[in-house]
Design brief:
Layout lengths: L8 E6 L10 H19 L8 E8 L1 H12 L7 E5 L19 E9 H11 L3 H16 L7 H22 L2
Parallel strand pairs: 1-2, 2-4
Antiparallel strand pairs: 3-4
Helix pairs in contact: 1-4, 1-5, 3-4, 4-5
């Protein structure tokens, strides 16, 4: 694994017992930090990543279903939910955005270990590859990207398709 000293600060909480065979906390933490690093380097190459903070919580299907209902009005489990903290004027697309001045908290991402494990199996991929896809997707959301229109969806998918292989390559697993 790569040294994490040059990676963004990612706070990770796990409120559920991870299913057997899941990667350990060190692998998950590196995956999460690398995902954020890849997205930031691609979209904002000049920003100091040491000043970027992101909260990530891994929960059960029950936990994410409750959050999905409370925040989106959807009564079902999902793989990832994103909760941006930046206002539109504070987002990296704003030319005045400067992560070098003081720490910037992008927001929080909530992941369902159960849904992601199920999706990984259905798609014939590893858990770490699927969680990387969900992380990149969630990070794009906290940075202000959405997929409400066909154009926005295509833009996000193109970014995700190019970033996830880069994350996986940096993980050296």
């Amino acid at each position: 694994m790569n040294d994490r000293a040059d990676l963004p600060n990612v706070e990770i909480g796990v409120s559920v017992k991870l299913p057997d065979g899941m990667p350990g906390p060190d692998v998950l933490g590196t995956c999460m930090a690398q995902s954020l690093s890849v997205v930031l380097k691609r979209l904002h190459p000049g920003c100091s990543q040491g000043n970027i903070e992101l909260g990530i919580l891994i929960v059960s299907d029950t936990g994410i279903r409750s959050l999905n209902l409370r925040h989106r009005g959807v009564d079902s489990a999902t793989d990832v939910l994103s909760f941006p903290l930046l206002e539109n004027s504070e987002k990296p697309d704003d030319p005045t955005w400067d992560a070098d001045s003081e720490p910037v908290s992008l927001g929080d991402i909530v992941l369902s270990a159960e849904t992601i494990a199920r999706q990984a199996e259905e798609r014939g991929m590893s858990f770490i590859e699927r969680i990387s896809e969900c992380l990149v997707h969630g990070i794009l959301h906290v940075l202000g990207y959405n997929h409400d229109t066909d154009y926005e969806r295509a833009r996000m998918e193109k970014l995700e398709d190019s970033m996830v292989p880069e994350v996986m390559g940096k993980l050296e697993i």
